[in-house]
Write a structure and sequence with these properties.
The protein is mainly alpha-helical. The protein is 77% helix and 0% strand. It has one domain (2-141). The longest helix has 45 residues, at 97-141.
């Protein structure tokens, strides 16, 4: 049973486009390399460079998930800035933008719940990578506690 749930989770991750590594996207991979380079600052410590690379990849993975979430909401709602102007002053009515935004969230809640799971996992990874980076930076600087 656990195996089928894992397979289903993998299929969903592929379907949402969130399972692919940042390393597979050339633009994000180049950006990760630039971020890691800036964080490691040409220091010779390979542990620090590796930690900086992992931190940059984790940050960009979280960024990609956030972007997917925003795109998902934009696709689920028909409320455009131009259409929003038609409803000026009609807050909390059944035809106003507040109602339409709430309805869009309700329509998107299942998809948003799925993205939230990816987001929590990516945030956890970012926190772990941040800790590893700062520990590596302390070691590289010769600081001891």
């Amino acid at each position: 049973m656990a195996i089928s749930a894992t397979k289903e989770g993998n299929r969903n991750a592929l379907k949402h486009g969130l399972a692919a590594s940042v390393r597979r996207e050339p633009k994000l991979c180049n950006l990760a390399a630039q971020l890691a380079q800036a964080m490691a600052d040409e220091r010779p410590d390979s542990t620090l460079r590796h930690a900086a690379e992992q931190l940059a990849l984790a940050f960009l993975d979280l960024y990609r998930i956030e972007f997917h979430k925003v795109t998902l909401l934009q696709r689920r709602t028909a409320l455009t800035p131009e259409r929003s102007k038609l409803f000026e002053g009609q807050f909390l009515s059944e035809t106003g933008p507040d109602f339409e935004h709430a309805a869009a969230y309700l329509r998107a809640r299942e998809a948003l719940a799925t993205v939230d799971r990816y987001e929590r996992k990516a945030l956890s990874r970012l926190m772990s990578c941040s800790k590893a980076y700062f520990l590596a930076e302390e070691r590289a600087a010769g600081w001891t506690l």
